[in-house]
Recover the amino acids of this structure.
């Protein structure tokens, strides 16, 4: 198992370098001069040139990239172009809100998705199954920014139950502020959970070991929970790990709508101000998160199915 | 727009209620709040004005510099030596504000190594800055500077505590600034909010009225509107034009529409040959239906612009707005080398729906001239970069982008007509250049008014842009918020704002 983990970690290194290289090139190919954006349209060209020099933007691109990688190896991502603060100080405090948001969204998705998928599988091709499938398709098709605004209108404006935006300062504030954004992401993820889990459960329900369990006289509830559900959930867990990239990109939109100071909103601000050091550091963080989650899924597979380690 | 005064706050019920926390939602977060870095980004100025003091100030109800940290000043007969008499004031850390703090601050602003926009300007005028004694500051200029006091009302020439600034450096000062303004910053959670509490040492006795201010940064327009609607914020500025009537109908909310120093217009780059012909630019101006644009895009909240320079202190309302006259536009176009028109590529911000609507209107009204527009939307960073690199034919910035930080025209004239190839437009008109320089170097207020009137008329006859409207500020406030007013340079002071029960 250790050799397997070591091999997967080694495989992740070139992936990370590839991710940073690609983002670095894309960013520098995108029109937009960070010095001009920082100083504004009225700034004299001489001031813009001076700032470019100070930021090291006049150096050749390979030199800039090598400097970035060398710094990143020591967790030193330089200073932000926009406000001169160390990138570490800007990115660090933004990680937790995003992780909390994603964790809560996954929790809501499972809370909603598991009963719906179970009901759908048990009532296959009956009215309840059709209703669940149509309902989840509708929520999946709705843009997240729109769902977010609708939820705010209902829960915050009409009912006054939760804040309409913001992350607050205390732990209680954080949770209250994250419920609506997490629910918004969950409404996007739940349909995928329902579809995956439903088909997996239907398949498992027809498996020989389930028939055997029934033949041994186990109750329907025990067969469902101990045999069908546990075996079917594995594919859903894997799906969520694979979806981590999509969840992170979903967070970009939702954090903007709900003013959550997470990685997604920082990415939007940094791309718009061409804050190269921040965007590069964020790309690296996103890459690491996605790779770690996918590594976790691989490990889970390996634990369940030893053939994967061969 | 009837005459120009700095808006005054509506009369508030008395007595003033002291205390409480004001929550204000803004769409733009400051990049930096260190005034000495010379940056003047739109997110920073309304925060800096609460934290820092200037020698002279613009107050609601006046466009003229008023005593700030300088109680009075003497000007030498040749107009080059200003002696400021400083009041007793203290920074948020309890240290007194001294003339040597001022010397440090002004010298740093005029340092050519300062990254911001104004180092060169101040450097070109500052000859010598000295502390005569702890409460007297003397600034010697290289030449008379008629708008010097107006420039001192701006947030860049603010005072910071020399010892503290030198100890922690620019980057850390940004995060932990100390000023002598009405409020002291307690924390800046990047991407979320800036928190301020009242300055216990503030020199205006009894002010500020509020105990604390929370400025939250929420980029999504809809979310900010919903926050006011749900009562989680007290003030919402920059209400999108299309949502103004909706906000106006919110229960428990009042709205304000105030004149600000902004003009919405299409920038033209004369490197694109058709636009180098004055008759082409004039034809486009005559084919522009400003009233229809105001009605459709700006919901009749703005007023058609009679100048490419915002309506400030010397603005002449009697200069006529170029009327919508398709026949005259056609006749002018016939005189040019492009009687059958040309194609124009217009850049605008991806999120700027007003620009898209304006382009749609112009596509119809410019079509009879044979002028077709292709609209290209790019993100704001690309827009600014292409502008600075002169890589555009026509460009529309989001509303209020073209605004002045001063209540006089000097900043706008310098930036739009003189520097950077007339702000990247390559506009050349010897009369305009001569009048601009004459205006900038004239001391007499009445003479300046006359010269500006001539300049305004000249720019209408030989336009450098296609003007649309003077756009106003739009603010929504909870009904219990009093004393809030957006001033002419599109910023606000919170020292006299209070919340009723």
């Amino acid at each position: 198992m250790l050799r397997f983990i070591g091999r997967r970690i080694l495989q992740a290194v070139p992936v990370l370098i590839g991710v940073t290289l690609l983002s670095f090139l894309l960013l520098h190919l995108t029109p937009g001069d960070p010095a001009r954006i920082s100083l504004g349209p009225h700034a004299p060209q001489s001031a813009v040139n001076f700032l470019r020099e100070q930021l090291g933007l006049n150096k050749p691109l390979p030199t800039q990239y090598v400097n970035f990688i060398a710094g990143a190896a020591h967790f030193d991502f330089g200073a932000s172009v926009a406000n001169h603060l160390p990138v570490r100080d800007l990115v660090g405090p933004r990680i937790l809100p995003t992780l909390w948001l994603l964790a809560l969204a996954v929790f809501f998705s499972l809370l909603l998705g598991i009963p719906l998928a179970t009901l759908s599988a048990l009532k296959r091709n009956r009215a309840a199954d059709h209703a669940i499938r149509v309902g989840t398709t509708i929520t999946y098709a709705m843009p997240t920014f729109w769902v977010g605004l609708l939820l705010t209108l209902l829960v915050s404006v009409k009912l006054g139950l939760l804040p309409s935006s913001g992350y607050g300062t205390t732990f209680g504030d954080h949770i209250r502020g994250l419920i609506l954004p997490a629910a918004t992401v969950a409404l996007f993820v739940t349909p995928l959970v329902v579809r995956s889990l439903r088909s997996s459960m239907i398949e498992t329900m027809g498996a020989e070991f389930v028939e055997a369990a029934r033949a041994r006289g186990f109750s329907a509830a025990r067969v469902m929970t101990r045999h069908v559900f546990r075996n079917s959930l594995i594919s859903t867990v894997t799906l969520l790990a694979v979806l981590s990239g999509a969840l992170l990109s979903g967070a970009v939109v939702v954090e903007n709508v709900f003013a959550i100071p997470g990685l997604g909103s920082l990415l939007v601000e940094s791309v718009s101000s061409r804050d190269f050091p921040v965007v590069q550091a964020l790309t690296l963080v996103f890459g690491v998160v996605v790779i770690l989650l996918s590594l976790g899924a691989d490990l889970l597979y390996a634990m369940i199915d030893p053939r994967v380690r061969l | 727009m009837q005459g120009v005064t700095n808006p005054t706050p509506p009369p508030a019920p008395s007595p003033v209620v002291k205390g409480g926390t004001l929550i204000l939602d803004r769409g733009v977060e400051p990049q930096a709040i260190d005034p000495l870095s010379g940056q003047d980004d739109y997110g920073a100025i309304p925060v800096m004005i609460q934290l820092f003091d200037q020698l002279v100030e613009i107050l609601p109800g006046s466009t003229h510099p008023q005593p700030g940290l300088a109680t009075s000043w003497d000007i030498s007969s040749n107009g080059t030596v200003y002696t400021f008499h400083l009041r007793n004031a203290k920074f948020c850390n309890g240290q007194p504000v001294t003339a040597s703090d001022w010397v440090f601050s002004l010298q740093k602003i005029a340092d050519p190594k300062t990254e911001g926009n104004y180092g060169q300007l101040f450097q070109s005028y500052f000859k010598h800055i000295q502390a005569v004694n702890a409460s007297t500051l003397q600034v010697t200029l290289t030449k008379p500077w008629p708008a010097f006091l107006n420039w001192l009302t701006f947030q860049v020439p603010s005072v910071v505590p020399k010892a503290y600034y030198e100890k922690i450096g620019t980057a850390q000062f940004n995060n932990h600034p100390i000023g002598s303004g009405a409020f002291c910053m307690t924390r800046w959670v990047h991407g979320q909010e800036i928190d301020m509490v009242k300055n216990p040492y503030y020199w205006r006795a009894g002010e500020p009225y509020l105990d604390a201010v929370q400025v939250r940064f929420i980029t999504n327009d809809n979310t900010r509107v919903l926050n006011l609607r749900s009562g989680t914020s007290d003030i919402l500025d920059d209400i999108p034009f299309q949502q103004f009537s909706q906000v106006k109908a919110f229960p428990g909310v009042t709205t304000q529409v105030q004149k600000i120093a902004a003009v919405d217009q299409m920038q033209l780059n004369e490197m694109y040959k058709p636009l180098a012909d004055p008759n082409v630019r004039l034809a486009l101006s005559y084919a522009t239906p400003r009233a229809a644009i105001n009605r459709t895009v700006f919901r009749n909240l703005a007023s058609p612009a009679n100048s490419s320079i915002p309506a400030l202190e010397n603005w002449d309302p009697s200069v006529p707005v170029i009327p919508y006259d398709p026949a005259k536009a056609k006749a002018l176009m016939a005189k040019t080398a492009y009687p059958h028109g040309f194609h124009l590529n217009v850049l605008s911000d991806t999120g700027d729906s007003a620009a898209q609507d304006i382009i749609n209107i112009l596509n119809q009204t410019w079509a009879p001239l044979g002028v077709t527009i292709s609209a290209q939307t790019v993100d704001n960073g690309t827009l600014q970069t292409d502008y600075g690199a002169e890589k555009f034919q026509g460009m529309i910035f989001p509303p209020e982008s073209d605004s002045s930080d001063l209540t006089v025209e000097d900043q706008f004239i310098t930036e739009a007509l003189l520097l950077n190839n007339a702000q990247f437009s390559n506009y050349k008109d010897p009369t305009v250049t001569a009048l601009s320089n004459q205006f900038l170097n004239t001391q007499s207020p009445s003479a300046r008014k006359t010269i500006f009137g001539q300049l305004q008329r000249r720019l209408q006859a030989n336009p450098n842009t296609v003007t649309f409207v003077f756009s106003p500020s739009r603010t929504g406030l909870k009904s219990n918020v009093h004393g809030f007013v957006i001033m002419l340079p599109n910023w606000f002071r919170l020292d006299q704002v209070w919340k009723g029960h």
Notes: Chain A has a mean pLDDT of 85. Chain A touches chain B through 56 residues (CB under 8 Å). Chain A is about 80% helix and 0% strand. The radius of gyration of chain A is 24 Å.
